[in-house]
């Protein structure tokens, strides 16, 4: 009796001897066929299964290395093209992908420029094109990969991440286009997404490349928007990032993500559980580096301010920034660009403070204001002095010290205007009355219709509206936010899309606790504006919630009304007034000869004046064509609402007691079909 391991070892050794010494042309294909048989996926007996597993675990790498070492042998060149593809190449493309990749990269690094090197390069290209990277990730996700050591795993990860560099160093200038970073890293990202779809897990170590993150982050941001499972996957993924790669991963994420909400959904409260992540987010990106755009600062600071548990870190960051800004040594010895970067971060941090937090920090900010302004104004550099003036004005305006605000005289440029725009509370200049006018000449105003001015001001940002509607108990602030919400939604599409689903959820569950005038109309118009602005995700949310549990009939009717109004608005032509002007109107009237259309108008007028007509109808302005915004999204309105009407819920039965809602549902579906009569999807519904 011979153990299975010994049988496989003897068979593999016999194949090696045949390939090395045989002169019979028929023995070579038979030996290669024997090695390929251990990689077959067909039906297998218990003995065959053991043999195949033993070969994959112990002899596969050795077999590939033997093939690479003999790539210049006579027997290799005697193989036909078909035999080479089916028997030789297939060994690299069918076995354990991690072992095959390591052997291929090792062979490319060792072989000199030759036909053998070209053949290995072609096999590596086929390896990538045939989805073997997905198989590699899949095997590790299922824990079916052979047991490996930390050293082997590090080597494998290094080969995958650095493949463009390794091939470029070896093959330049004859490198394959697929091995270039512009093609390889998007391919790697696509393979990772495929593994995610299969297992909802993948290796976090591949996230160091900015090219990879540029593909991954938008997809993850969309998936985490409405799916808590995806959020947990991303959180677990980031928790397992090796510490030495945490810096690169977080930096790439912050640069690639659209806004602070998306960053929060992807990384969660990682800064509270991982010291390295906390250092990168709260210190390195804000104080040690200054190469990032203002949007990156908004993302980082907005992420810290968006969650109650993370707000203490925002306070910590503000203290560090104020100390850095007011440090006289830093003002003298750090680059002006870094001081500008710190000034932006400081103003954004102060703008994100709540009134209660600002009250607690007022003494520290005042000390920072006085010391920092003195250091900046003493500088001999004009940009630094101007920077100190602008920041001083903004801080004093935000703190509102004793009702007085600092005001300096300086020339405004793009830099100062950007700094002024970063603070939420802006100052206004009072208009002085004309002292030469006598009181007797002043006409009294009719004050009978005046109303008491509220101390609260309407919000200027849609995110402020959301926070007020969620957490505020002040009836005045809630009313102002509800009244301003629709306008803010329509004016700032980008900011609305970041919180559209969350704001819709808040409005859908909102009750009129403070007896706000026109509460129902304001709530409904805002929800309609959100659907129009960010149609697909909000429509998917509303149509899903319509059949969910624990909703009142009034809420379900509200959903139908909002969807119907939004569909009608989307189907209407856009107003010409909302379109931006194509060209600006010049301040001066141009010389007639400079206008290429002028002579045509003159000739046309002369022709019209000399032409006799028997009758002349009314002049009609030709209609301006505009795209139908409803047609591409009509299916998102219609089909989800139609899918579950006959499935009774625990508290909801359309075909039973809740027939009132059924009637409204049928009416709404009919409206959707009527509005989509010219849309391509209408033909499918009609058939």
From TrEMBL:
It is found in: Cytoplasm. One of its GO terms (molecular function) is telomeric DNA binding. GO terms for cellular component: cytosol. Residues 309-400 form the TELO2 ARM repeat domain. It comes from the Eukaryota. The keyword Cytoplasm applies. Residues 424-455 are annotated as: Disordered. GO terms for biological process: 'de novo' cotranslational protein folding. Belongs to the TEL2 family. This is Telomere length regulation protein TEL2 homolog. The lineage of its organism: Eukaryota, Metazoa, Chordata, Craniata, Vertebrata. The gene is telo2.
């Amino acid at each position: 009796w011979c153990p299975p391991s010994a049988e496989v070892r003897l068979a593999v050794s016999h194949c090696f001897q045949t390939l090395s010494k045989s002169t019979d042309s028929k023995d070579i294909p038979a030996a290669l066929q024997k090695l390929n048989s251990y990689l077959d996926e067909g039906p297998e007996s218990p003995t065959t299964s053991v043999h195949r597993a033993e070969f994959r675990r112990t002899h596969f790498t050795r077999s590939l290395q033997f093939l690479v070492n003999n790539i210049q042998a006579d027997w290799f060149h005697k193989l036909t093209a078909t035999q080479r593809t089916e028997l030789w190449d297939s060994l690299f493309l069918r076995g354990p992908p991690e072992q095959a990749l390591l052997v291929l990269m090792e062979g490319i690094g060792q072989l000199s420029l030759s036909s053998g090197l070209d053949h290995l390069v072609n096999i590596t290209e086929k390896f990538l094109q045939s989805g073997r990277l997905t198989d590699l990730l899949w095997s590790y996700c299922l824990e079916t990969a052979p047991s490996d050591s930390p050293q082997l795993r590090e080597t494998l990860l290094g080969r995958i991440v650095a493949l463009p560099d390794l091939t470029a160093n070896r093959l330049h200038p004859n490198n394959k286009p697929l091995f270039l970073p512009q093609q390889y890293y998007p391919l790697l990202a696509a393979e990772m997404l495929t593994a995610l779809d299969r297992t909802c897990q993948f290796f976090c170590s591949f996230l160091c490349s900015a090219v990879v993150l540029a593909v991954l982050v938008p997809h993850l941001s969309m998936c985490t928007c409405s799916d808590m499972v995806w959020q947990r996957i991303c959180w677990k993924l980031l928790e397992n990032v090796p510490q030495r790669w945490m810096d690169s991963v977080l930096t790439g994420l912050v640069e690639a993500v659209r806004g602070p909400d998306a960053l929060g959904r992807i990384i969660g409260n990682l800064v509270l559980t991982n010291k390295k992540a906390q250092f990168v987010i709260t210190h390195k990106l804000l104080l040690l580096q200054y190469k990032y755009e203002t949007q990156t600062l908004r993302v980082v600071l907005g992420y810290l301010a968006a969650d109650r548990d993370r707000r203490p870190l925002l306070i910590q960051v503000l203290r560090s920034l104020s100390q850095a800004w007011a440090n006289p040594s830093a003002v003298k010895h750090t680059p002006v660009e870094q001081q500008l970067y710190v000034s932006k971060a400081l103003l954004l941090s102060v703008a994100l403070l709540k009134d209660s937090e600002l009250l607690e920090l007022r003494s520290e900010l005042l000390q920072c204001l006085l010391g920092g302004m003195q250091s900046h104004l003493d500088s001999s550099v004009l940009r630094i002095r101007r920077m100190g003036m602008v920041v001083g004005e903004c801080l004093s305006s935000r703190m509102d010290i004793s009702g007085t605000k600092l005001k300096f005289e300086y020339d405004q440029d793009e830099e100062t205007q950007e700094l002024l725009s970063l603070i939420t509370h802006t100052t206004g200049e009072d208009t002085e009355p004309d002292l030469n006018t006598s009181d007797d000449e002043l006409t009294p105003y009719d004050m009978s219709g005046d109303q008491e001015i509220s101390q609260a001001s309407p919000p200027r940002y849609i995110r402020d509206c959301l926070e007020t509607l969620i957490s505020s108990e002040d009836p005045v602030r809630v009313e102002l936010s509800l009244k301003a919400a629709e306008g803010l939604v329509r004016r700032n599409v980008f900011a609305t899309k970041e919180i559209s689903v969350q704001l819709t959820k808040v409005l859908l569950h909102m009750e009129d606790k403070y007896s706000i005038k026109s509460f129902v109309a304001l709530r409904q118009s805002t929800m309609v504006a959100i659907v129009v602005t960010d149609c697909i995700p909000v429509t998917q949310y509303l149509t899903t919630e319509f059949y969910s549990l624990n909703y009142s009939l009034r809420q379900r009717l509200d959903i139908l009304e909002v969807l119907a109004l939004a569909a009608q608005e989307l189907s209407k032509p856009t107003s010409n007034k909302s379109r931006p002007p194509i060209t600006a109107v010049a301040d001066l009237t141009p010389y007639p000869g400079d206008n290429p259309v002028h002579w045509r108008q003159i000739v046309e007028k002369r022709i019209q004046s000399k032409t006799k007509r028997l009758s002349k109808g009314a002049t009609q302005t030709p209609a301006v064509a505009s795209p139908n915004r409803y047609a591409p999204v009509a299916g998102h309105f219609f089909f989800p609402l139609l899918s579950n009407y006959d499935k009774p819920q625990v508290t909801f039965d359309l075909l039973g007691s809740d027939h009132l809602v059924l009637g409204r549902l049928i009416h709404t579906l009919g409206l959707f079909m009527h509005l989509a009569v010219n849309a391509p999807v209408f033909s499918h519904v009609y058939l």
